[in-house]
Please model this.
Amino acid sequence: MCEKVEVKEEKTRFDGVKVEVLGPTYEPGKPAGQEEGSWRRKLHDREEMLKYLKTGERYWYSGDWYGSERRKNPA
Amino acid sequence: MAENTDRSVCPATVQLLGKAQQEGVSTAFFRADQVKPCPIGADGSCCRNCAMGPCRVLLPRGKSDLEVEVTGVCGATTDTISARNFLRMIAAGAAAHSDHGRAVAETLIAAAKGEAPGYSVKDEYKLMKLALDFGIEVGDRPIEDIAVDVGRAALAQFSQQEGELAFIKKAPLKRQEIWHKLGVVPRGIDREVVEALHRTHMGVDQDAESLLMHGMRVALADGWGGSMIGTELQDVLFGTPQPILGQVNPGVLKPDHVNVIVHGHEPLLSEMMVMAAEDPEMLALARAKGAQGINVAGICCTANEILMRHGIPIAGNFLQQELAIVTGVVDAMVVDVQCIMQSLPKVAQCYHTRIITTSNRAHIPGATHIEFHEHDALNAARAIVRAAIEAFPHRTGRVEVPAHQVDFVAGFSHETIDYLLGGMFRASYRPLNDNIINGRIRGVAGVVGCNNPRVEHDAVHVAMVKELIKNDVLVLQTGCSAIACAKAGLLTPEAAGQHAGGGLAEVCETVGLPPVIHMGSCVDNSRILMAATAMVKEGGLGDDISDLPAAGAAPEWMSEKAISIGQYFVASGVFTVFGVTWPTTGSEKFTRMLFEGLEEKVKARWAYEPDPIKAARCMIEHIDARRKALGIDKARERVLYDMAMRRELEAL
Model:
């Protein structure tokens, strides 16, 4: 069962009415640990890297995708 | 004489300027009052390319070169002389960036061969990417072999005599078509720089347009060549930047620590400095001298490089290099190349600071030279840290570290933006393009470049960027400009709510991005080219960079590199505005060519506007014009296509 969230804050609704909404539930602070946000760690081996390159960076490395450049008469 | 409060919007700078004045220390701010700019040189009207001159091709007051012809001894006209000077600036800027890239390529090869202890391939993913760019086989080959091949392929780009630079292929197809048509695709980096010097030698190229066309070729060799090689290979060696929390301003200096400042542009040595400063032996030595530890901080672009990869704090930007020493707590300032003032040893004489030069390309009288070689980098770094520790007990004078320190987030590489917007499953610029199309984001601006004491320090950068984000323009930054805005608190996600327009703030809040994105050092302007290309290739915003609702600016520029960067932005299709001064005003004909004529050739042009608000509005006007051309300037009815309509579309 979830703990009761105590933090509330007042905000202005689109129609100007003041409403009370749930406030942030995270602990205030600064991010620590550089590696925690490192998405590269999700790519374990060379095969995964190449696969990600060909999908994530498909503009340059995938033969079947040219975005807005995909047209009948290429430039 | 100006008051210090009029010299900078940065309170730490104002405070330290007061201290410098009290202690009789000369800084660039005060020297700018004494040394007025040469009015002939400022207009680009002085030709000193041979011994028949120097020729001052001054036009009669109130006349332009469209009405009157004034020539040098050889007959060179004002527009030829202006174009030659402009091309030489581009060549020097491109040479600086390219030499930087070359040093990185050489270090990568040495590291892969095991000849550069301390260096290794930190980002295999990026190495794979470069292997694909250069057509190098990956397979199951050892990483070191691939790295050597990538390094050699990159190095070959400098001396290549024929063909095209490899990274040119990454540009939008339509842009490549424009370059081919104009014949400005660079063959090899060194070749284009050398040809620029040849063309501008006495009696060679005497046509302003021809000189300008080669200027484009040289600049493209910088942006899509030398700079891009520098950026990409540094990512391989040191890791591709990811968002990281940093601190900025002289307040990052610690009075009870040994403070070492790394300043310049190449992170090759400073990476090792970070390691040396963490060495237990060095820390023990520092403590033995009475210090609590060793604090490394950066100035200028070296600072941006090591901040993005290690979170090392930034003590300031270009105009703060002398003032950092004025704090009295800098024990050593280590400099490599570019943007280093020759005054540093003189300022350091007033204190105990050791100025240490490290590159065989950059010696300064009065500085200690500890040469850095990649095969012995860690030992050089240790020698430098040791020198700083030895200096620590000799601190003289009054110590004053301004209590100004600002948090900010840096490290937004193209890859990170791709990931942040789309995630692992579908890395993509789609959300950015969609929000530009739906109007929440009006457009994108690259605001980059140096500081210049001829204008109020940081003020122009900050005012321009605030005006842009207020009008829902997402700002991408590099170099000293990024440091200026970081100090103003614009590089945090919270800044979106405080300074950005409603649409931009909404997107930033959703994605968790600041409204001003720090993409690195000035060599990393190539990342902005990559981001712009990714936006084009994602679709929906035209099929060329010149179609994007985007603009560029360097409002406080001072270096030749800035002109080279500006020219490659324009040649790549970005409308680009410069502030402070404009170096071709002596020739109306050539200036018109840059400000008007280029539009016809490359669908982009230069502009000059020293007022930051007016310049920002000029950029917004351009962005709005591009939105109109794309048909995204007003809300449109949503049409749900049925199969018949789709077939009709396919048949087009």
The first strand of chain B starts at residue 46 and ends at 47.
